[in-house]
Amino acid sequence: MTTLARSNRVRRTWWTDAVDAAGCTAYTVYNRMMLPASFGGTDVDCAHLKRAVQVWDVACERQVVIAGHDADALMQRLTPRDLSRVRPGRCAYVPICKNDGGMLNDPVAMRVAEDEWWVSLADGELRLWIEGMAAAGGYSVRVFEAETQPLAVQGPLANELTGRVFGAAVRDLPFFGFGRYDFDGIAMIVSRTGYSKQGGFEIFVEEERLAMPLWDALFAVGADLEVRAGCPNLVERIEGGMLSYGNDMTDAETPFEVGLDKYVQRYDCIGGAALKRHVSDRRLMAVEMEGPVPVCDRRWPVMDGERRAGHVTSAADSIEFGCGVAIGMIDRDWAPGAAVTVETQDGPRPARLRENFWA
Amino acid sequence: MTTLARSNRVRRTWWTDAVDAAGCTAYTVYNRMMLPASFGGTDVDCAHLKRAVQVWDVACERQVVIAGHDADALMQRLTPRDLSRVRPGRCAYVPICKNDGGMLNDPVAMRVAEDEWWVSLADGELRLWIEGMAAAGGYSVRVFEAETQPLAVQGPLANELTGRVFGAAVRDLPFFGFGRYDFDGIAMIVSRTGYSKQGGFEIFVEEERLAMPLWDALFAVGADLEVRAGCPNLVERIEGGMLSYGNDMTDAETPFEVGLDKYVQRYDCIGGAALKRHVSDRRLMAVEMEGPVPVCDRRWPVMDGERRAGHVTSAADSIEFGCGVAIGMIDRDWAPGAAVTVETQDGPRPARLRENFWA
Predict the structure, then answer these.
(1) Which CATH architecture has domain A281-359?
(2) B interface mutation test: which of A6, A142, A143, A346 has the most B CBs within 10 A?
(3) For A133-174, how does the pLDDT look when each residue is reduced to its tens digit (9 = 90+)?
(4) Where are the domains of chain A?
(5) Interface of A with B in 249-268 (CB under 8 A)
(6) CA-to-CA distance for B293 and B283, rounded, in angstroms?
């Protein structure tokens, strides 16, 4: 356990002081910003997230704005997902690929207006890519990072809590829908999105002066809901099969290899030609391990005797499911049910490939 | 003080286990990799660096290779620095700008061959930028990240230590020169570069299997030189006026504003037109503060009474110079000698603008 050295280069968020005060014990760095990683410990945080409601500082989801006459055309050029039916007021999960089909990022894009998209970055170098494509392709757009920081409200009681602050109408938002809802006289964008399987919202705060009042309001009205500061939870997201860019996929993997086949709907995008002729002999799958598992800070070889079947990309111990839960990139020679061994830095762990994730 | 959560996404280096074992107490994340930030504490590390020799894990200086027929043309297109006299065997510090003249990165580029450059990245999104420019401009090059991790040897005894491992000839390397020197039968690239003012080398390890043998060899032959594991030192680099991309400059500042005027030698590069017409009313300068100064993890306003003169970008307490040493972006209305106040998160500190850095 080593501390994270702080500096200007690793950007604080509008809530970092509040996150510290709420008892954050570990951070990671995401898009060169501070992202809380633990409060009461991953297990305690996980159980609470599944039971109550948490407020997450996810300012590190930097928002890249594509605005102007050609915003739609550029957005469609960037992703193999067909965006023609994504109307203003809707979000879409959009894999973005390089020319060779490798995954550059897997953001959620929000169509804010006919000619404006907000791209919510996973941890990766996407902003300059979009700027470069816009310039190289002669698109009539402005590309810039918005002065916006998202705050997530996640958990089964997120509906109740968010409705208390923004009004009951926010509870009618469909999954991946968004709208503007009033907080203290300011119409804020609230979307039904978030990096957990427990449901909830993301609130896009557009002025620093509103950040702490919103945080405080959520805690003030949520005491009976047992609201706590939280963060994306490693256990919960693996149980639910939610992928993490940088962990479970990099630019060395295609959407097909990481289970995003259904989002590859057109080939007239960057990387489309490569995706069209793509053939792969591996895919991500759930891997059940005997615990306890150490911190997965490197790729663990997955072995079948002397043969290498692939590698684990993320892992954690799940109290709910009583095992180590993991995600692995596995050769197609191995099918669900296969018994394998995962070689961790603390030694081998018996494991089994699974058809589905746990939750 | 909070811990750094480890994961696959924040890449370990070939030396992370050794760095942990050597007593690293704090890390930062740099180019999405682990970079040690402290061993015995910044002050103790600083005094030792100035007296003896340290081995630094700087694998986070990712190496982007530009290779092929048009490597030279692309490299020159990327930077306003004139590279026509940089021959193979030489390194050059190359500011790289966006179209608007803002700084994208300030790498050291190594001309490995007539048609091959290695670009040693500061913390920023440069690889995709180079790939995009290569594709958009139709340059006949390959751009990729090398399987190379640099290890730095820094300090007044670096010459002695490095010579013991690579042979006395390495001591003849001129500043910013490099060559291949033998380690255990392998010819490794060694350059006379590094992020300190104490002198030394960077060694470019091209295979993981050689990483720990080299580390161990440096410690085995350096015991009498008091060799220790170390890392770029915040105090030493500010005393010497060494800038840090992400702290002291971002893409919102031009080379002129951060004191890199002398590297702007041509305007036929990306950003050249903007640089040509650039007029600015601010520049980076040394700021002497009354200590103790807190951790500079945000921009501190620099005030002259009610007027804002600029902001501090980096700061630390210097034992050698008996003051807080800082770097600030200051409006040209204020000249060296001016008395100002720096507003830190722990309260105001009397300060004075300086003509020069300390070392």
Answers:
(1) Beta Barrel (2.40)
(2) A6
(3) 898 889 999 999 999 999 999 999 999 999 999 999 999 999
(4) 1-280, 281-359
(5) none
(6) 22
Q: Is A244 on the interface with B (CB under 8 A)?
A: yes
Query: Between 3.40.50.300, 3.40.710.10, 3.90.1150.10, 3.30.1360.120, what CATH number should domain B1-278 receive?
Result: 3.30.1360.120
C-alpha closest to that of B239 among B283, B286, B200: B286
Q: In this predicted model, what pLDDT tens digit does every residue of B62-117 receive, in sequence order?
A: 999 999 999 999 999 999 999 999 999 999 999 999 999 999 999 999 999 999 99
Q: Which CATH architecture has domain A1-280?
A: 2-Layer Sandwich (3.30)
B169-173 own/partner pairs: CB under 8 Å, 24+ apart: B170/B201, B173/B201
**Where residue B1 falls among pLDDT bands split at 50, 70, 90?**
low
Rounded Cα distance, A152 and A134, in Å: 30
DSSP 8-state assignment for residue B268: S
Q: For residues B320 and B281, what is the distance between their CA atoms, to the nearest angstrom?
A: 32
CA A140 to chain centre: 29
State whether residue B38 sits within 8 Å of chain A by CB.
Answer: yes
Chain B contacts in chain A segment 148-177 (CB below 8 A): none
- pTM of the entire predicted model: 0.96
B249: closest chain A residue by CA: A9
- The tokens for B95 are 């500011």
Instruction: Tell me how far apart the alpha carbons of residues A7 and A216 are, in angstroms, rounded to a whole number.
Output: 26
**Minimal Cα–Cα distance from A247 to chain B, Å?**
5
Q: Say yes or no for a CB contact (<8 Å) between A132 and B136.
A: yes
Beta bridge partners of B114: none
Q: Considering only alpha carbons, which residue of chain B is nearest residue A136?
A: B136
Please tell me the distance in Å from A181's CA to the nearest CA on chain B.
Answer: 31
* Cis, peptide link before residue A156, omega less than 30° from 0: no
Q: Is B247 on the interface with A (CB under 8 A)?
A: yes
Residues in contact with B26: Cβ distance below 8 Å, sequence separation at least 6, in sequence order? A2, A3, A4, A5, B36, B37, B38
B123/A32 CB distance under 8 A:
yes
Residue B131 to residue B107: CA distance in whole angstroms: 16
- Min Cα distance B22 → chain A (Å) is 12
Q: Tell me the β-bridge partners of A66.
A: A117, A143
Residues of chain B found within 8 Å of residue A27, distances taken between Cβ atoms: 2-5
With H, G, I as helix, E, B as strand and everything else as coil, classify residue A239.
helix
- DSSP code of residue B203: E
Q: How many CB pairs under 8 A join A and B?
A: 140
Under DSSP, is residue A72 helix (H, G, I), strand (E, B) or coil?
Answer: helix
End-to-end CA, chain A: 30
- B242 contacts: CB under 8 Å, gap ≥ 6: B195, B196, B197
